[in-house]
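Subject: sequence -> structure tokens, single chain

Hey, anyone have a minute? Need the predicted structure for the following. Not urgent.
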Amino acid sequence: MGGMIPPPAPTLQPFGRYRLVCKLAAGGMAEIFLAVDSLPVGGCRFVIVKRIHPACADDPDYVDHFLTEGAVALRASHPHLPVTYELGDVDGAHYLAMEFIHGPTFLDLLRLAQRGRGAVSVRTAVTVGRAVAAALDHLHTLRDVYGRPLGVIHRDVTPQNTLVAYDGTIKLIDFGIARASFQVHQTRSGVVKGKFSYMAPEQFHGVDDIDARADLFSLGVMLHESLVGRPLFRGASDRDTIDRVLHMPIPSPTALRADVPEALSRVVLRALARDRDRRYARAADLLADLERVADTYGLGISLTELRREVRALCGPPHEWTLPALADAPNGPDATASSSASDLPAAADASTTAEVDERLRARGSAPAPSDDPERLDDDLIYFLAQAGVTLPVHRRRRARTTHADVEFSRLLATLDR
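Reply:
Had a minute. Here:
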């Protein structure tokens, strides 16, 4: 899949201590770059640079969200969360520098599995669920240097924001819409943040005291989807999706897949309780139950087995090197006069065609018009580690699915 990797710019664009190799994606709030970091002790490494979008640089609300994301990321330190190296600014442009995680999103794995045998293994689903629960437990219990709870809520726990690296590590990413008690600009009452099909019911009811239990509902949705092999609540429209989250009977995973133990289904359904008082109160409790089920039914999976499953679905990993730049007269630290817009993009029409052709070769790729969210698959193998969202012009779904939406307008069309 080397063709999916954009060629580096003739010379790397300098950005502070980093050299930008290519733009991976641009969302509503930030641009994402693959970059080279020259280390003080010599040598260099690939990193992800997430830079606030120029159009948002002067908006206090966007800047506050970006700085909140950075503060949470720097404070967090857990095996299932990405390492954040630095929060800074270059000429007024705020940025985050984070570890480069080489691997697909869990969403990519689910879709590839759905087009093949139908779902990932139960052991893989449980292992990813345990990792995300552990990451959430760490986030939810973060404290400042004085021991005061930070009150962090992720608010965007989805397969798209979960990475399963080629080396078998699992990371929950993207704190772009996370909430913390120290934020200057808190989310306005009546504003919904997140992806509708993974949001907890209380987030649609205008509840001001959204807490960590909303993240656990999102994880429950993710667990159900990974076990069953299809999204739980996604409807034909935003209205239909919200209606399903609020009212659709939730089937037991065991009823839809015979090799899912009843005990595991009970854990998932408890996480999916619409009444949050009947839901798990803490991520640690959900994690404990998942571990108990895994131990009882032999649902653990080794790193070797997880690596094998990732490669079976995605193929071998691309080797990230910069041979052309290494041979250039000025080497990888060369300066450049190019702007970020001159950098090559990560996914163009040719890469889209390549992914589709690869899936068709497996006998499993639908025609482009049959998959309204197909474009996410274009970024398999190297994207999403820093909160990537597709540029607006490449989305097939309405942008409101991934953006702030006024609560009153959201629910006005529901016949309830």
